[in-house]
Design a protein that fits this description.
The protein is α+β, with helices and mostly antiparallel strands. The chain has two domains: 74 residues, Glutaredoxin (3-Layer(aba) Sandwich), CATH 3.40.30.10; 108 residues, Up-down Bundle (Glutathione S-transferase Yfyf (Class Pi), Chain A, domain 2), CATH 1.20.1050.10. 56% of the residues lie in helices and 8% in strands. The chain is built from nine helices and four strands, in the order E-H-E-H-E-E-H-H-H-H-H-H-H. The chain has a four-stranded mixed β-sheet with strand order 2-1-3-4, with helices on one face. The longest helix has 29 residues. The chain is globular. The termini are far apart. 29% of the residues are buried.
Length: 218
């Protein structure tokens, strides 16, 4: 059976979790608390970089969420989450990479502020501007379609849809088109199943705040 090592609040591990649900696969969830369990020999043998998620398929393991998504799509192609047409495929890949390389780094200062750290106001403002640039790009790519690159859910929606809905809580408003897209995603059972509860979010904030405080320069 497939096994997914994950942390429920993690956007990285939520991506393959959603894909597994969308494909209707049988799998076992193994929760990592990330309080040191990621350094245990059993997990290090799976991922020497101590990160989640990790997918184990019998004797084969896959690390990094985008690699896991591609593996699942190749091995379990139905229902398809990756379009074949060139422009649609290019759109999906652009959304994935812009989310990873542009949006998520921009969200880091906003996340710090959200959990109660006083970050540099200039960095926060720059982060909001960079996030807005990414959102405008996404709105253009979405166009009048229901999902990125298709009228059906794609990997782009899974990758971006685990991050963009956090932005209003971080002080970045979504335009009506992207808000409608978020609402569309939230109607799907896979999003509802994986959506962290308010209690889970608050517990995570408290735990991360303690860890980040320990790492602050004295």
């Amino acid at each position: 059976m497939l096994k997914l090592y994950h942390q429920p609040i993690s956007v990285n591990s939520r991506r393959p979790w959603i894909a597994l649900l969308e494909k209707g696969l049988d799998f076992e969830l193994i929760e990592m608390k990330l309080d040191g369990d990621q350094f245990q020999p059993e997990f290090v043998a799976l991922n020497p970089f101590h990160h989640i998620p990790v997918l184990v398929d019998d004797d084969f393991r896959v690390v990094e969420s985008l690699a896991i998504l591609d593996y699942l799509e190749a091995k379990y192609p139905t229902p398809a989450l990756l379009p074949k047409e060139a422009k649609a495929l290019g759109t999906v890949r652009m959304v994935e990479m812009v989310t990873i390389n542009e949006l998520l780094p921009a969200m880091n200062p906003l996340f710090r502020q959200m959990i109660g750290f006083d970050d540099d106001p200039q960095k926060v403002e720059e982060a909001k501007q960079k996030s807005a640039t990414a959102l405008a790009f996404f709105e253009e790519l979405l166009g009048d379609r229901s999902y990125f690159g298709s009228e059906q859910l794609t990997l782009a929606d899974i990758v971006a849809g685990c991050s963009i809905p956090w932005l209003p809580q971080m002080g970045v408003a979504l335009n009506p088109k992207l808000q409608a897209w978020c609402d569309r995603l939230m109607q799907r059972p896979s999003w509802q199943t994986t959506q962290p509860t308010p209690e889970t979010i608050e517990a995570f904030k408290s735990r991360i705040k303690v860890l980040m405080a320990k790492n602050q320069p004295q």
